[in-house]
Amino acid sequence: MSAITAHWTRSSADATAVAEGCYFDLAAAERVRTFFAKYLRHGKGRWKGEAFDLLPWQWEDVIAPLYGWKRPDGTRRYHKGGIWIAKKNGKSALGSGLSLYHLLADGEKGPEVYNAAADRAQAGIVFNEALNMIRASPGLSDILDPKPSRKLVEYPAQNGVYQALSADVKTKEGLNWSFILFDELHAQPNRLMFDTLRYGGAARLQPLFLTLSTAGVYDPTSIGWEEYQRAKRRTAEDTSFFAHIAEADADDDIESPETWKKANPSLGSTVLAADMAVEAREARESPTKENSFRRYRLNQWVQQEVRWLGVERWNACAAVPKPPATRPVYAGLDLSATTDLTAAVFLTPDDDGTYDVFPHFWVPEEACKRRERSNRQRLDAWCNAGFITRTPGYAVNYAKVRADLNALRATYRVKELAADRWNATQLLGELEGDGWEVVAYGQGFRDMNAPCKELEALLLGGRIRHGGNPVLAWNFANLAMETDAAGNLKPSKKRATEKIDGIVALLMALGRAMLRPQVASVYESRGILRL
User: Fold this and answer.
1) Which of 50, 70, 431, 439 stands the most exposed, by the fewest C-beta atoms within 10 Å?
2) Is pLDDT above 80 for 50?
3) pTM for the whole thing?
4) Residue 348 belongs to a domain with what CATH number?
């Protein structure tokens, strides 16, 4: 074994590869590094126009081992691989550079290079970064023919193509790819696209199928989790699969710079320690922010169902609500299940930025009996105490709910009633006829994110009074949140441990209250600018 090969033998898989005749070709690895520095220019950000000099980790942990290791016949050792790293570490730029290398300099005849992703927007991220590099690099713009509207770059001299593909593109069969970069594999809704593409390079001498992704939401059946686990458990026998994972351990201190460095090898370059410190402190205060911080900044897989704030935060806001008096009231009505709990929550804002909460619940009488038989949370004690109103029969009696709501209007000066119109068209139409201002309220991230984050802020700041209603407290304890890639929130009834109807109604009411017209100050009303 040469000294160079010995230096780059770092795992049992490397040792097995050497025993099989593999060796390390430093010149081949340097050829890739030279291509980056000589031909590529950063296309955006603070390094725009500067040469693409690989960061230490990009060279040591990815480029050198991925392209330096050779089989006995001189071809690349690795044909498949996975790189899992936190966001903001230059992942997209690295992927763009690799795509252009395989198009221009890998020595493949008629190269076909593809960036694959779950949707068109995601597929375009690495491609657009490469397009910016082409425009910033005069040598490349002279020989390549970009067609941005088709997410395509042609290389006429070698009959080569580089294109972005997404799951919504139907024609993916029959591709004879030389290089596939699969971006953010964790976001793939199923394995169909992955399986369609994975064998397309079989006719090539040294094809490379590379995954470049951040950790996702744990799902043992997903292709993202499967490939992450393959990278995680790479064995001595799996000598053709390249793996690099930069992640924090589960029990690491999230406020420690040592923890940040594990998942962010670009710390101090593309990732700033000051930003990490701020986000880590925020994560300590908020379970939802902690979830996002762990996933996107520490590259840790997370559960989709987030317990959100602890019940102690909720219990700390159990002060008796102030009577609404003449203040405006916003109501939320959740009629999610005709055979179980129905909730209406009245919410009134105060001039000091606080809120008062007044919940009301209804349940079919038979639902109480059914719960008693199944040993689920019993509601009859709360009914007897007046916290829930029973309605006769197996389904919620909407006539009773309507009558009670109309009676409550004598107490609350309701400006709006927010509700999901799904399965509630008749009742809501009747309430509109009774004079209610009914507003349709969506249940997705778009409508629920803002009130979720506002409720979090209210609870953390002790600026809401809910009176300790036990049914509403039970709903809160059952709550599970879903997050999307942008960190938006929404409550998940599917993943909640039990009923959350009261909290959903509260969020709808809060969402409308947040949009209320703000009273102008005396200075503004007089046209005086106040700084």
Assistant:
1) 50
2) yes
3) 0.65
4) 3.30.420.240
